[in-house]
Amino acid sequence: MFNRQARPGALLNQTDNFIQLARLVRLDEKPLAVDALTEINPTDDGALATWLSTNFKDQLGSNYLPAYCGFHPASRLLVRETLNTKRFTEPAYLPGLIAEHTKAANPREWMIRGLHASEGTVMTVEGVPRPGLLFGVPWDTVREQQERLLSVGLHPRRLEVGTLCLLGSLGRHLDHSGFVRAVAVCEVEYTQTRVYVLAKDGVHTMPPLPHGLLSILETALKELGAPDIIAVRQQLEDPPEALRAHGRRLVRIINRHLKPALDHFELRTGQRIDTFFCSQLPTKLEWLGQALAASIELDLAVPNLDSWLSNSGLNVDTGGTTLSSSWLATLSLVTDLVPPHAQPQ
Fold it and tell me: Topology of 178-300 in CATH?
């Protein structure tokens, strides 16, 4: 009764477009068992509370439920930058870089890290300036998310920006599969799209594109003559083949910005991109990611989740449903809870 690790726990990943939830059957169990998966609207607190009370009815109440959580705040920064690690000891150095990229008024009130572009590990004071990833998120944003989780009965043992977990897991999976080309990774948020490239010299970043899922819905609203955004989304969630065939028209507003950005990367680096991975679209709208890949004439990367789960040491009971690619980011939040020998190489 005193073994806290024997308790079940929750897995939660929140994006602009969905919240994915799963139950961790026992935190001390190896391999880690995951079941009772669901995806809900991020604004529907009632659905979140109902799912938690249904799946943890014996644990919720006077005690908080342990949880491993990911989120994707709009204020987060991840940008490739030449970092002078010798200056990391200077109090103003990293906040100054944050201010340059974000125009933040109080960059000292951010959680800031310099990361290796290939391994994703935290940089320390070392040699000459080198390319790295400048990562930051305001502490106020972190605290707000923590309070929201506590309000629904979850105690976050860990709260991570899910982008980092996704890029790390996807990169390791592609390396394990023998893939050698560069891969474009898009996080399609509600009002913008973030673009990264996994290349032989690590992660490259691009400025956010000014359109996201909302722009796709607004385009579909005009194309389909639907009465409102809610109605058009319902049509897109259950599209007939004729609508799927016209998917490129629905995503063309993102393509207008994405294709030049990827072309510029290839011209600047000499590295060829021939695969595309799309993240943060709800499961019922993932076919729009396929349309976006086709519109920029790239193959869509569809990770073999069975192979990835086996290598990661996770035992996932899907209840007979097929896991979509969007679950890669969510499940990546708990891969370090399994024995080291089961981690992907």
Answer: Nucleotidyltransferase; domain 5 (3.30.420)
Using the Cα atoms of residue 208, residue 214, residue 220 and residue 225 in order, give the sign of their dihedral: negative
Chain segment 114-142, per-residue pLDDT in tens:
999 988 899 988 778 899 999 999 999 99
Cβ 236 vs Cβ 144: under 8 Å: no
Q: Which residues pair with 134 in a beta bridge?
A: 79, 114
DSSP 29: -
Tell if the pTM clears 0.85, that is, is over it. Answer: yes
Annotated domain spans of the chain: 4-72+142-162+304-342, 77-138, 178-300
Q: Which CATH number fits domain 4-72+142-162+304-342: 2.30.30, 3.30.420, 1.10.10, 1.10.8?
A: 3.30.420
Distance CA 234, CA 237 (A): 5
CA distance 208 to 141: 19
pLDDT in tens, 233-272: 999 999 999 999 999 999 999 999 999 999 999 999 999 9
* CB neighbour list of residue 136: distance below 8 Å, 6 or more residues apart: 76, 77, 94, 98, 102, 107, 110, 111, 112, 113
Same CATH fold assignment for domains 4-72+142-162+304-342 and 178-300: yes
- The tokens describing 190, both together, are 């509600």
Residue 30: pLDDT above 50? yes
> In degrees, to the nearest 5, what angle opens at C-alpha 102 toward C-alphas 97 and 106?
75
